[in-house]
Amino acid sequence: MLLMLGAIMTCSSYLMFVYNPLQLIIKKVATLAPGSIFLNLWSEPPYNVFIDAYIFNVTNPEEFLQKKEKLKVNQMGPYVYQEILLNKNATFNDNGTMTFQPRRYLRFRRDLSIGDPEEDRVMSPNIPLLGITASLQKSSGFTNWMVASISKMTGAQSFINLTVSEYLWGYDDRLVTLANKAIPSWINFDRFGILDRLMALDNATNIVTLNLHPELGLASPMLREDERSAVYHIHRWNGSPGLKHWGYVETDDNQTTPKNNSRCNMVEGAFEGTIFPPNLKENSTVKLYRRAFCRPVPFVYKNRSFSKDGFEGITFEVDKLFLARPEENPENSCYCVDGECLPKGLGSLAPCYYDIPIAISQPHFLNSDPLLLEQIEGMQPNESEHDSSFILHPELGIPLEADLRIQINLNVGQTKQNSRTEPFNGMVLPLFWLRLRVGEIPSFVYTLITLLFYVLPVIQEILKYLLGLGGLALMSGTALFLLFFSRDEPNGRLSFRGHYSPIPVIPMNSPYFQPEIRILK
Q1: I need a labelling partner for 339 at 20 to 30 A (CA). Which of 95, 229, 396, 405 fits?
Q2: By residue range, what is the domain housing residue 410?
Q3: Residues 245-296: tens digit of each pLDDT
Q4: How many domains, in total, are found in the chain?
């Protein structure tokens, strides 16, 4: 029995050296599968995700309208909202994919905010007036004249004074109400709030399909090899691998891919932001997609670093060319609306937001065309405060830290026949910017990482050697025992084999003990 136990211990040690059972455990834990720990973690992420809203407040509206001064703004905020994400109705499909519906909810956090949004007020350009008028630049003169007449009749002003809550979540605007009643297929809301519109798109009925088994070969050939082999990438968004509002054309399996379809208007291969592939390579580029941003946002590998909780991770930062013109970044070619490309640092969101010329940028026009900064006073771009990055755990592929920042602007262009919008012609107006950040790592995630990557590896190393040495010792001891001892059959007692004595005994009558007698003469 001792010999068998020793053999089992030695074999176990050998198998631990060869197969590394801890990696098998990690692979089992870090897999989206029915009933898995990861599925429960992903379905209701325990992370504290916060959205900090910073609003640009106009300080000189009268002087600007009188063309005495450039537009001046100062930054108000943060007004902090906690985002609660639920991934509902997860269904595992036979083709190796999983389908689900994400839902997001925001809850105001007064304890983390600079003020009360119900009381604090902001002076803002009249976004509905400017947005609707700017969207009609290519319409007839009569249409523009009609809108100008209606805006005058409704008493619309160039600037409006609102509470922060009204600005973000909605207020009654007569122009919006008329547009909603006249053209509900275009303006499908009767109150306007800028953050409300972003969240409305994010929380529309979105059905997302993730590729859990890329080895089955479902990925599009337009993806790079590393993108096709990446687990958890988006396979379909609302049934499509591409973004129709950027020109993607659906095809059947036996049809030739249309020339308009490209990597630019693909959503397949991007990630929805809560889970990433494990063991990403150092030259990797990952794309994040939220429907509110209208397009995937690329992040490139930066370095290996440590999170504020002390865990080693991989840092990704937003690609500096993510909002570059197609001359610098050919993958941005499909984002030029009607053949017109925005200046460097701006990305159009118009196809996602009622064709109103909304544009994204980095906060304070970081990494943008210098002309954008010259139009407005008060913009202070700073890379440490306005850039975006996140840290992933290398083996689990879950976020350790995240700091994503995006700014929403209104690209006014050249409005027509409206004296209330004419002073803004040619300007890109910064409206507000959002910082999406992840708070401290949840205690469950902290414990899981500590156990899997700091405690169990030490225990495994100790066990490997203890089992190996202990097993060899047991087998050697058992072999020696069987070699030198036997059991007496009559009495059942153990006895030593042979007559070996560790101390030699010499009889006294031995000739060696006979004294030598000498006769002295």
Answers
A1: 405
A2: 47-441
A3: 999 988 766 565 677 889 999 999 999 999 999 888 888 899 999 999 999 9
A4: 1
When computed from its CA atoms, the radius of gyration of the chain, rounded to whole angstroms, is 36
Helix H, strand E, coil C: the string for 474-521 is HHHHHHHHHHHEEECCCCCCEEECCCCCCCCCCCCCCHHHCCCCCCCC
* Dist. CA 77–CA 58, nearest whole Å: 14
**Is 73 among the domain residues?**
yes
Residue 176: predicted pLDDT: 87
- Whether the CA torsion 272, 274, 280, 285 is positive or negative: it is positive
Residue 357 lies in a domain: yes
Say how far residue 116 (Cα) sits from the centre of its chain.
30
Tokens found for residue 381: 């771009």
373 belongs to a structural domain: yes
Q: What are the helix and strand counts (H, E) for the chain? A: 14, 20
Give yes or no for a contact between 344 and 324, defined as CB atoms under 8 angstroms apart. Answer: yes
Residues 85/102, Cβ–Cβ less than 8 Å? yes
Which pLDDT score, from 0 to 100, does residue 107 have? 95
State which residues of the chain have pLDDT below 50.
Answer: 521
pLDDT reported for residue 514: 57
**pTM score, whole prediction:** 0.86
Q: Which one, of 293, 235, 222, lies nearest residue 261 by Cα?
A: 222
Q: Is residue 387 part of a domain?
A: yes
The pair phi, psi for residue 256, each rounded to 5°, is -75, 140
Per the CB < 8 A criterion, the answer to whether 319 and 283 are in contact is no
What is residue 521's predicted lDDT score, i.e. its pLDDT? 46
Q: Tell me how far apart the alpha carbons of residues 266 and 161 are, in angstroms, rounded to a whole number.
A: 40
Q: Give residue 77's region: left, alpha or beta (phi > 0; psi -120 to 50).
A: left
Q: 86: Cβ–Cβ under 8 A, 6 or more apart, which residues?
A: 43, 44, 102, 103, 104, 105
Q: At what angle do helices 174-182 and 127-134 cross, to 10 degrees?
A: 40
Whole-angstrom Cα distance, residue 99 to residue 235?
A: 9
Closest by Cα among 290, 368, 279 to 322: 368
The helix (H) or strand (E) run that includes residue 57 is strand 49-58
Interatomic CA distance for residues 165 and 146, integer angstroms: 31
Q: Which residues have CB under 8 Å from 357's CB, separation 6+?
A: 131, 134, 135, 348, 350, 410, 411, 412, 413
Residue 10, phi then psi, degrees to nearest 5: -65, -45
Strand partners for 171: 192
Euclidean distance between CA atoms 492 and 497, whole angstroms: 14
Nearest Cα neighbor of 316 from 328, 305, 329, 326 is: 305
